[in-house]
Fold these 4 entries.
Entry 1:
Amino acid sequence: MIEAARPHLAELCRRTSTVATLAVHDGGDSVCLLSLPGEAELQGVLMEAGRRLPLHATSSGLVLLAQASVSLQDEICDGPLHACTAATITDGAALRSCLAMVRRDGYAVVRGAFTEGRGGISAPVFGGDGAVVAPLGALRVTQLLSETRVAADAVTKRIRTETPRFTETGP
């Protein structure tokens, strides 16, 4: 699976400047199989193969948990759910709701749930039998979202104060 995934993770890194990961499920953890580097600002995010992370605190873990057996979902949701950061889901009912959304949407997104200032998105990789065998994830600095919002707010303010000049779109 690692060799099948490696060129696709490399392409994801190249196209998005993110750290790309592949993980599997083992007990209450996700285990990193492969992590390829993205931007220099994320080098500290690069995970070594074998690193274990809690299922409830990462996008890869949420994809795995959403497709796990009901008994494992119950075991994890019934807690205790350790808070890695203030953004980590620590309530079983909230986690169950999140897992339902992951199943519905087909992917998971987290912002600062495992490490403050970093987020991830993961999507399932399916085996020949149609079962999820691993999630493929991309990690990014979430500060970009904040900076994007600040820039968007500044543009909004300028447009509102100079409305007559900006009544049309285009170059």
Note: Helices lie at 2-16, 59-66, 70-77, 92-105, 143-161.
Entry 2:
Amino acid sequence: MKIWTVYTRQPLIVTSEVDKSGNPIIASIKPNGKGRYEVENVSSNFITSVYGRNNFSEYFRRIVQSDNLIFCDKQKKPSNV
């Protein structure tokens, strides 16, 4: 699986995997969070959701157009996006 990281106001990971409808699987991440592991508080990055994104090209275009894109590595862009 290839991973394409897109930094918006909240980091987004786009994978090379697709759902049953052929939509790219994306995950949103909450960086620098806190959580509990066993009995200790730990620093962690949380995945807040994972899903197949309908019409990803339009979604990404709106991210860019609204000036919310901070960084993306075009060389790692999955072929299905």
Note: The longest strand covers residues 24-37.
Entry 3:
Amino acid sequence: MTTTPGGAAPAPQGAPHAAPHRVTLRWSAIGLVLVGGAAGVAAREGLSLAVPDVDDIPVVIPVVNLLAAFALGYLYEGVARALPGTPLAGRLKLLLGTGFCGGLSTYSSLATDTAVLLDHSRGGIAVTYALGTVVLGALATLAGIALGSHLHPRGPDEQELRRIEGHADPHGATRRAS
């Protein structure tokens, strides 16, 4: 099989020829995720060391997952409303969303802790632990979205309102009232 200069396989015979798609990684974006992730992992580890287990149940893991879910909901809604389409919005999502919240949350530890609880014949607690974290995590995300919406309301687009009300033509020119 031959490839194009970009490394992609050629289009099948009879198919339209499209330019090969190259994925470009920016070192600044990778750096933001790494810095945010390191801070999130450090925060999780600090909480794990500071908060003891309760009756051999690691309570920090659900707590950090809920915090991360809430923060992600708030972050994405608040940033989308306050900084729509700006480079700063993208950088904040990488640093805080993908990086910090990704490092803070740990659903793999949740799965491991659930398996340990099951292994110790604590099935009811294991199911409550796992399902409770997932359901409460979804609710925490919705709460974060609601808070982001409340604290960063979108202002009306004045030009769109004029167009809807019939005071402007679709091309943006204002009509005079008759």
Note: Confidence is low (pLDDT under 50) at residues 1-6, 174-178.
Entry 4:
Amino acid sequence: MKKDTNEQHGAFAQTAAGAELLENNCAMTLAMQVIGGKWKLLILNAIRKECPARFGELRNKMVDITHATLTAQLRELERDGVIERKAYAVSPPKVEYKLTELGKQLVPVMQALCDWGEAFRQSAAVSAEGREEGTAE
């Protein structure tokens, strides 16, 4: 039987919250700690679609995110081993982000969420049309 250790779960496990979650063996909570929040899945999806992705490209695709927030989220994803950062020694600075092998395991999850979102949008549109037809009578 495989025993979870802090070494197996990277930097996240070194935090108090990470250690507590690993002790509780709550996989969904652990996953949400790593990829949850307003921006992380959107960032990962953008990197998935255009890999490798440069910082400026990510910033342009997500107009509502601040520079500081994008930087912090990218650092957290890198720290947790989901993305890899490669800096080039050029002027102006060039930095690219790509999914690690661990991050690539999220691709089917992201695709399933995209598919679900599209199905929900379509069912919501049908429901809205039905409500409008009901009020027009």
Note: The helical segments are 16-24, 27-35, 40-49, 55-61, 67-79, 101-104, 107-136.
